[in-house]
């Protein structure tokens, strides 16, 4: 069934709907053309340091600017991309573009801590033999600061190939790539993956942050995740912050970073540049709680 998302995008390409192999081939061809025509875009959602609400970095989020259907959110096409293997090509576009953009920002601005960009990686991408070299090349080409280029993986991904994933993530760590455990608390084996894999950041799933999750149990769980993460030397990012109350609560709990519509919505690189230049970007988000404070490097 076609599902409407907040962005107005419709889920058109749910692979379970596509029972005809020929249909899949057509969609695959359309996606291939999308890459050739540069319709794959990367948007950037700001992540704030909760202590001062200053901009710390971004999560890179893929979008497809479809010629007739408009801006498509990942859930409307990533399923098919994974099914067809196109995710590897799309993923490469996202990594390249995000790395290029981070290089531009790092050369143009100084910030309290090095600005970072975190890119989501799918399982098909993670086990691609060329991934590590691709990332290595991006880092040296752009001269990215150590630890500033990050990848986000979910535990379900890691559980698909536990041994393989552990080896690959270890190589990334040696390369100085930041490793975030995405959507923490939703899959199973959360704790065992934290024990076995070299993560430096834990992203707490928004289901633990939402306004519905403010009962005593939810607060205790959140508190415990933050305390445990810190004991393990991990930085904690809270996902899905939608109001000031959540900012305050998470700050009190000692959470390091926050991400969510209240802090800033995903935006194009142009919108980010406007915001950094102090230009109005009201069309992006009515209200924002982040301070766009990066100093021009000259
Ligand atoms: P994710 O990695 O957990 O990314 C966060 C998602 O939550 C984003 O959705 C973001 O727009 C949304 N979000 C952020 N703040 C809020 C909030 O305050 N409230 C609510 N309700 N949602 C919020 P988006 O961009 O639609 O991406 C969905 C998922 O698609 C991502 O979840 C990630 O798993 C995947 N994805 C996105 N880009 C890529 C990519 O380049 N490669 C791969 N493999 N997966 C990607
Ligand atoms: Mg993510
Ligand atoms: Mg997430
Ligand atoms: Mg998520």
UniProtKB/TrEMBL annotation:
Name of the protein in question: Sensor domain-containing phosphodiesterase
Record organism: Aestuariivirga litoralis
Residue ranges occupied by any EAL domain in the UniProt entry: 24-280
């Amino acid at each position: 069934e076609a599902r409407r998302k907040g962005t107005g995008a419709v889920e058109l390409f749910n692979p379970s709907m596509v029972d005809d192999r020929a249909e899949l081939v057509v969609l695959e061809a359309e996606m291939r053309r999308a890459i050739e025509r540069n319709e794959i875009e990367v948007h950037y959602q700001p992540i704030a340091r909760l202590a001062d609400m200053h901009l710390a970095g971004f999560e890179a989020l893929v979008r497809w600017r479809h010629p007739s259907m408009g801006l498509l959110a990942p859930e409307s096409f990533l399923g098919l991309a994974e099914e067809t293997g196109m995710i590897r090509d799309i993923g490469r576009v996202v990594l390249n573009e995000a790395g290029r953009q981070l290089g531009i920002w790092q050369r143009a601005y100084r910030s309290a801590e090095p600005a970072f960009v975190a890119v989501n990686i799918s399982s098909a991408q993670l086990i691609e033999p060329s991934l590590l070299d691709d990332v290595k090349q991006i880092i040296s080409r752009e001269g990215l600061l150590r630890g500033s280029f990050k990848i986000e993986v979910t535990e379900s991904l890691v559980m698909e190939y536990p041994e393989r994933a552990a080896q690959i993530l270890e190589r990334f760590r040696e390369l100085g790539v930041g490793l975030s455990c995405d959507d923490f608390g939703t899959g199973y084996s959360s704790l065992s993956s934290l024990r076995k894999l070299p993560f430096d950041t834990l992203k707490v799933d928004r289901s633990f942050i939402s306004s519905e999750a403010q009962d005593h149990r939810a607060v205790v769980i959140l508190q415990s995740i933050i305390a445990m993460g810190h004991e393990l030397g991990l930085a904690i990012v809270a996902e899905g912050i939608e109001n000031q109350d959540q900012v305050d609560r998470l700050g009190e709990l000692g959470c390091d970073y926050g991400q969510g519509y209240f802090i800033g919505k995903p935006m194009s690189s142009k919108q980010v540049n406007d915001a950094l230049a102090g230009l109005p970007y009201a069309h992006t988000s009515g209200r924002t709680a982040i301070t766009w404070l990066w100093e021009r490097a000259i």
